[in-house]
Amino acid sequence: MNFSDLLKLKKIDPTSIKIHLAKTRPNKFEPWNELTEGRFEDWQRRQNSHNFSRPLILSFVFIREKEWLFAGIHTVNGYEKRDGRYHYSTTQATDYEEYIGRMVIRFDEKNFRASYVKAEKYIDKLEIVQIFQEKYVCDPFPGYSKVCISHDTLKRIFETEESSWKTALSAVFGIYLITDTRNGRHYVGKADGIEGIWQRWGTYSENGHGGNHELNKILQEKGLSYAENFQYSILEVIINDNQSVVDAREQHWKKVLCSQNFGYNRN
To answer: Helices then strands (H, E): number in the chain?
Structure first.
């Protein structure tokens, strides 16, 4: 089933719609997080260009490769231009509002950069592939070797205590990597507490630095919002609780990634 079928049920003309495909900006917030926090429509109203020149906006936010989460249909009431930006007045339509944050569409032909497209050109390409029972929070835990998440996603996981992530990260010790996506610098850390990686990463979700001197220093200089540039991944899972083993593997990865000479590790 395609999204075009839903429009036909409501007799909505695609030529009256501009599709908005909201995707993560480099070193910026996750649009799906704005949606789950109830801030998406307010953010969408502020545009750098005259992007919404039609009566309706059909909004989706990116969640994974080729897949987008339904963010609602919005009526454009008008706009004003100030400070070089377009400020729109919009109203969320009731059509299919029960699927906001729950319906996932697949858009295989999204191989272009444009985020605002005419609906009649692509509406038949938006395949409905999944409807969650509850509103989307984040993807389930993907496996240790596939973890690569933003700070926004990390905070969301801990705010909701997403069960698949908590179960997996609490079960193991490990060596993890924090990458500053603004400058490419690395921080290699170890998780060897009672609740493993879950416990250690919880401190980053709270304050952004986890007690690390260099990360704390850059956040003090640039503000706490700079933590939005941090990306988290797992280098190695360690089942053995021998402290010397954990310490040795941490030092190994610091050497491999040169994080003491060029990153945020001081020792």
So the answer is: 9, 12
Instruction: Identify the CA nearest to 72 among candidates 47, 99, 34.
Output: 99
CA distance 38 to 135: 12
Q: DSSP for 193-211? A: STTHHHHHHHHHHHHSSTT
Tokens 């709270």, located at residue: 206
69: nearest Cα among 80, 54, 58, 57: 58
Radius of gyration of the chain (CA): 21
pLDDT in tens, 134-157: 888 888 899 999 999 999 899 989
pLDDT digits (tens, 9 = 90+) for 20-41: 999 876 545 578 888 988 889 9
Count CB atoms within 10 A of the CB of residue 246: 19
Please count the other Cβ atoms lying within 10 Å of the Cβ belonging to residue 104: 19
